[in-house]
Amino acid sequence: MTRSPPPAIVPCTMEAWRDDTATPTTQMREIAEETPVSLTFNGMPHGVMMATPLDLEDFATGFALTEGIIPTPAALKGMEVHVEAEHIRIDMRIDGPAFHRLLARGRRAMTGRTGCGICGTDAQEVLDRPAPTVPHAPPD
């Protein structure tokens, strides 16, 4: 069975507070939805990043180029996107010289620049952590 990727935009019902009233109004908004995307190179897990599940091939190619894993798009020999139950896995095949450079780097210590705690991790198991509950409270 082939899974469809999760939605990139989801409707969200929210309470909106205005400065001139003490009563919230309910509004429907569309928000971007991100999902964990794990990246592998020649079968070797490299990292998990949060991404909107659109244009994933472009995302993966851009990541590999920006991180210096491949010097040019020609070094990317193939790519498969797998939609799993809880995440998306992108398996990339890179040429021998690029893979040897990646192996020579050793384990990287890259972390994402945001506070989600997912970006930059190298194992999918981090996603098994329960999400903290945020209490509902109106703004001050």
UniProtKB/TrEMBL annotation:
GO terms for biological process: Mo-molybdopterin cofactor biosynthetic process. GO terms for molecular function: sulfurtransferase activity. Keywords: Cytoplasm, Molybdenum cofactor biosynthesis, Transferase. PANTHER family: FORMATE DEHYDROGENASE, SULFUR CARRIER PROTEIN FDHD. This is Sulfurtransferase FdhD.
